[in-house]
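Good day; I would like, with your permission, to put a structural problem before you. The record follows directly beneath this note:
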Amino acid sequence: MTDDSPDRVVPEITCRQVTESTSAYLDERLDDASTSRMALHLATCAGCEAYATQIASVRQLLGGLPGPTAEPANLERLRRAFSLQQKRPPPAI
């Protein structure tokens, strides 16, 4: 059998592995084999499918929120503090 055979066995993954990889799956950062394993697991595990759906929903809602705004006075204070930090010598190890 070749690797592209429809009868190819896809090794299963655990629910724990699904929760650890959900963000990468949603961001489409997994390789093809991992994506296939995730999709198969989500299709057969209602709990993990619900979890992935919840994570996707939260990400979508958070993505729609406006970003933080900083007061100009706070920005200047942060710039000064960062500049002073950069000028300090590194700590002795």
Q: What stands out?
A: The longest helix spans residues 46-63. Confidence is low (pLDDT under 50) at residues 1-5. The radius of gyration is 22 Å. The chain has four helices and no strands.
